[in-house]
Amino acid sequence: MGYTKLPKKVAHKFARHNNGNLLINRWTESPMTVSHFNDLLITCKGTIGEMAFNRIGSIHIARQIMALTGIVGDLDYIRWFLYANVSSIERQANSMIPGISRDTLLKTLLPLPPKLEQKRINNKIVRLLDELK
What we know:
Adenine-n6-DNA-methyltransferase TaqI, Chain A, domain 2; four-stranded mixed sheet; 7 strands; Type I restriction modification DNA specificity domain-containing protein; DNA binding
């Protein structure tokens, strides 16, 4: 099975466009860290907080990217929360090197309304952004 290795610049490029697409640009036979289909990918080193959805499948991700799985929440809702709070989360990291650690992200308090409400919040944000265009 082939896995893709996603360098930071590829994830960033598509996260900026927010279209959820990633490019396959390299293959590895021995993936170290794997993201799965529909995971939310977030850059945690370098340009911090840029996000994209994994719409490819099982892929190898580099050290500067973390994958979030929507076990307890709607990933669109979680993406908006992280987008709104990324600088606050980064400040909590207390590191000389800019970045977000796994531990910092795991300890971030996330307001988690019922999933139906999360979907309503996401839909409202999307509608408001469409009106601004």
